[in-house]
């Protein structure tokens, strides 16, 4: 085969090539490369805390037990990230880990702010000495605050906090409308109830018929109050009666 024949064959093949398709594919390749470069640069900017820093955190919600310093310490590391790379879920988790915070919601606000709404724990009682109960009967640990004030003392086995709080509310309401204030309530491991009033009287309620036994105490108390001695303890664990323990003279002198 001569060089002339080879040349003619190549010319024929070149004429058969779809140049529009080739140029189209080449153009698409350049477009994809350009988009990849743009995405890479955008990722660098988005994750660059110096380029798009979080300039402010706006805190809303009523709070008197969680300080600005505690919030700043909780968010210190997270604030080193950029506005877009900061994970609002992590910010929320960090705030909800603060002892007196019950719930937090976080959202971004363009161009460089995080808006936070905090809900603090609404504490209603002491629990087992050193813990607290919120309005939902949930146990939480937190340092003491002056704004908490005086609270009832509740106690019970693990997992029984909601039952104890519900029972306290029921008994307290019945006592209050009859002029008594319930100071403490505890549930023993054997499910027996013990209560005390703010006047120092101890009430043994047993396992059953708590409301009926409280009503029995209310009915009989006017008679007990007429006695020369002060009531120290009333055992109501009887079907129809009760047993009374009296303060002795020496205790009363103190």
Automatic annotation (TrEMBL):
<dbReference type="InterPro" id="IPR026579">
    <property type="entry name" value="FtsQ"/>
</dbReference>
<feature type="transmembrane region" description="Helical">
    <location>
        <begin position="20"/>
        <end position="40"/>
    </location>
</feature>
<dbReference type="GO" id="GO:0051301">
    <property type="term" value="P:cell division"/>
</dbReference>
<dbReference type="InterPro" id="IPR005548">
    <property type="entry name" value="Cell_div_FtsQ/DivIB_C"/>
</dbReference>
<feature type="domain" description="POTRA">
    <location>
        <begin position="52"/>
        <end position="121"/>
    </location>
</feature>
<keyword id="KW-0812">Transmembrane</keyword>
<dbReference type="InterPro" id="IPR013685">
    <property type="entry name" value="POTRA_FtsQ_type"/>
</dbReference>
<protein>
    <recommendedName>
        <fullName>Cell division protein FtsQ</fullName>
    </recommendedName>
</protein>
<dbReference type="InterPro" id="IPR045335">
    <property type="entry name" value="FtsQ_C_sf"/>
</dbReference>
<dbReference type="InterPro" id="IPR034746">
    <property type="entry name" value="POTRA"/>
</dbReference>
<dbReference type="Pfam" id="PF08478">
    <property type="entry name" value="POTRA_1"/>
</dbReference>
<comment type="similarity">
    <text>Belongs to the FtsQ/DivIB family. FtsQ subfamily.</text>
</comment>
<keyword id="KW-0997">Cell inner membrane</keyword>
<keyword id="KW-0131">Cell cycle</keyword>
<keyword id="KW-0472">Membrane</keyword>
<keyword id="KW-1133">Transmembrane helix</keyword>
<comment type="function">
    <text>Essential cell division protein. May link together the upstream cell division proteins, which are predominantly cytoplasmic, with the downstream cell division proteins, which are predominantly periplasmic. May control correct divisome assembly.</text>
</comment>
<dbReference type="Pfam" id="PF03799">
    <property type="entry name" value="FtsQ_DivIB_C"/>
</dbReference>
<keyword id="KW-1003">Cell membrane</keyword>
<comment type="subunit">
    <text>Part of a complex composed of FtsB, FtsL and FtsQ.</text>
</comment>
<keyword id="KW-0132">Cell division</keyword>
